[in-house]
Specification:
6 helices, mainly alpha
Amino acid sequence: MLHDAEHRPTAYLRQRVKDLVVAGIPQQTIARIVGMSVNTLAKYYDKELHDSEPDMIRQVAEVAVQKALSGNDKMLQFVLSRKGTKYGWVDKQVIESMTDSKELDELKRKLEEFESKHDKDY
């Protein structure tokens, strides 16, 4: 292991630490993998330790939004279900049935009965 006074961060080590943080590896294990003490890791790679995961989440969110904007139905629904509620988006589940009208009427009656007993949250 290098002593703190001898350590010089490199672009490769910074990227390696970022990759390990994003992978969910604990700091003690990261230090062992890259060959330094936990104190040296914390001193020289504080930004990578604290910013890597939020940066990755931001990048993934940007991809999700771009896919939604390009017309990907699943991603559109996902983004709206996470971010659209504060703008009035309501995610409702639609159930289609190939039953006859008698069964459908019975299901509607049961749904109305259920809704009258419980507060609606939609």
